[in-house]
Amino acid sequence: MVTVLYRQRHGYDVRIYTNDHPPAHAHVLREDKKVQINLNTLEVKHNRGYSTREIRQIRKLVTENNKLLLDVWNDIHEQGERRE
Questions:
Q1: Sheet containing 44-48: which strands, arranged edge to edge?
Q2: Which run of H or E residues covers position 79?
Q3: pLDDT of the residue at 44
Q4: Whole-angstrom distance, CA of residue 63 vs CA of residue 40
Q5: Which residues constitute the domain of residue 28?
Q6: Neighbours of 24 (CB within 10 A)
């Protein structure tokens, strides 16, 4: 697991897991809440506890940092493919 963005605006942690599956996505956590968001489409998957307003904030955060998040996703998963 790599925490790409730590305690960002509104206290969100944005993580990418090294053993995760495609498509490219990140997990956004705060307190006991968690959401998985697709980095290409911003589609929300597996929302656990976030309100509609919070999802808007998360989408904005992911959009603003999309290039970094996609670069980290690609670096992690390309390395994993080479090791196998």
A1: 2-8, 12-16, 25-30, 33-38, 44-48
A2: helix 66-83
A3: 96
A4: 10
A5: 2-83
A6: 18
CB count in 10 Å sphere of residue 5 = 20
Instruction: Give buried/exposed letters for 31-40 (b at 16+ CB in 10 A, else e).
Output: eeebbbbebe
**Rounded to two decimals, what is the model's pTM?**
0.84
Instruction: Tell me the C-alpha distance between 32 and 11, whole Å.
Output: 12
Backbone angles phi, psi at 80, to 5 degrees: -60, -40
Could you please report the per-residue DSSP string of 57-68?
HHHHHHHHTHHH
What domain count does the chain have? 1
Q: Do residues 45 and 60 touch, judged by C-beta distance below 8 A?
A: no
Q: pLDDT tens digits, the chain, 84 residues: what are they?
A: 677 776 766 789 999 999 999 999 999 999 999 999 999 999 999 999 999 999 999 999 999 999 999 999 999 988 644 433
